[in-house]
Each structure stands twice: as C-alpha cells, then as structure tokens.
User: What shape does this take?
Amino acid sequence: MSFHYRIFQTPPLIVECFHGAIELSSLEMDLQRLWTDPLYDPQADGLAVLTGARLELRVEHIKELAEGVLSLPEASRGRWALLVTEPVATALSFYLGRLVAERQSFEVFSTLDAAVKWLDVEPLLSEIDCTNWPS
Assistant: This one.
C-alpha cells in the first residue's frame, strides 16, 4: 500500500491518500506516522481518498480499527469524509462510520466535490489531487 497525507492549516484539513492494497497492519503504521506529525491536530477535519485503493480488510478488521479510533487519544475527533468508488469499500466505510459515530462525524462520498462541500473546504478543492502527490 502507498499512503501519503497532507495537512492544510487554513482551513484546517487532513487529506489522506491511499493507493494499492490496504491491509490492517500497514494502515495502523501509517496512521501512527500521521499522528506523530507536528502539524497533526486531532480536532481537524479529514478527507480519506480511497479511490486508488483496494481494501484487503474484512469486517473483523474494521471492528479492530474502530476500537483503536475510539480508544486512542491521538486518534482524530474531527469530521471525516471518505471518498470511495468500489462497492466493498463503500460498505466497509459505512460500517466503520457506524462504529465510530460516538466519537466523530463520518460520511461516505463517491465524488470529491460532494466530500469537499460537506467538509466546507471548497477553497482547497484544486489542491486535493492524490494522483500528483509523491507516494
């Protein structure tokens, strides 16, 4: 899996880009790397772009991921938009959203425009392009 992220300061937004196969162990390591970034703010909203990814996760992995999000103080508490296009990724994203609903607002989108509008970060739209960021 290739994972990279960008943290925007104004408006505050974390953008995560995923490419290739996503497995739980690599996802956890990449999130830990993000959480130690000095610019990371757990209150910031986020956008996870999964359109270039292939989820190698099962329902039990999603439960484990949700438990981590709910229990770790460094995990985000902001609103999150997940951008997905594959049916399995969509279903697992909705499931994850239900599991973490007590901690964060979580929505699933099929278009970047809709996700950016929901997050109210339209000025950043032209800067959110996961295809051109280094992996």
The chain has one domain: 2-127. The CA atoms of residues 23 and 56 lie 5 Å apart. The domain at 2-127 is CATH 3.30.750.24 (Transcription Regulator spoIIAA). The radius of gyration is 13 Å.
